[in-house]
Please model this.
Amino acid sequence: MNLNLIKCHGSGNDFLLIDEMTHGYEFSEGARQNLALALCDRKSGPGADGILFVLASERCDAEMRVFNADGSEASMCGNGLRCVGRYVCELLDKPRIVIQTMKADLHVSQQEAIYENIPTYNVEISPVLFDLNELPMNMERKTLLNESLPEISDRLTFSALAVPNPHLISVVSTEHILSNEQKTISETVNGPNNLFPDGVNVSFVHPLERGAIYVRTFERGVGFTNACGTAMSASSLVTCLLGQNDFGKEIDVYNNGGKVRVVVNQLGEGHYSMELIGNATYLYQSQIELSIKHPESYREVSRIDFTEEGTYELLQNHAKSIVDNKVFLTA
Model:
């Protein structure tokens, strides 16, 4: 079969976008998994952190399903939602839409450029769940906020929440950013372990100044990524809960792939949602020929390259200079 796809990224978190809604594809669950395993492989395929499948929805403008590079399905992906949001907004010629995801129907809207001439979208990140059973996390307690976990570290404190992907977050100094701690902890809680039976995304967060943080994430099913949208949203929320940033105000979130903005909204006692604002950049559009049973043996039939990445690199360079000066050169 011939398969049309768009290579895109949000904050350097890159994806292959496949439209099942208008192209008439009907993939089985096994086929989606196999496509992710084959096409996301950076050695033999186009390479990506995951595949974004866009499907028709009975109650929303479209549905998004996300399959990671290891073939597992993610319940949400903030950076991916921006890319899907852009695609559906342009497809339907609407500035505001609602996208069905595994756990919630989420609002997406076109926004003013976060940096010169960059397609920018605001996506809703919710629900926010603090109950450790929701991650799941095995502990004799209900929640975890800025507390020690001697099972994995005797130096750091952690917060755990689901948005709805599970996240383990630690606010750290530069010495921890430069150390090997995050890799060791991430591999522990994403291997056979008693705390997180399904694994967890692990983020180290370093405050830069009020209203600005740096976030680096080891993403479950992927590994270290340039950025993780739900992790940046969850990290922003944690800094607000700790009094380091303000509810209702924009927080600049720097990452290894660039920069986004997050607004943490306090909806009521213990209830929150986030607005994740950032780029949705197209790299190229491609048509490939493959067999669903053996997608690794694909052939590229045609390809159209976009020119948007050059503009995004300006934001990326701007973000890198700030991160280098405030994180890596201050240790």
Observations:
- The domain at 132-277 is CATH 3.10.310.10 (Diaminopimelate Epimerase; Chain A, domain 1).
- The radius of gyration is 19 Å.
- The first strand starts at residue 2 and ends at 10.
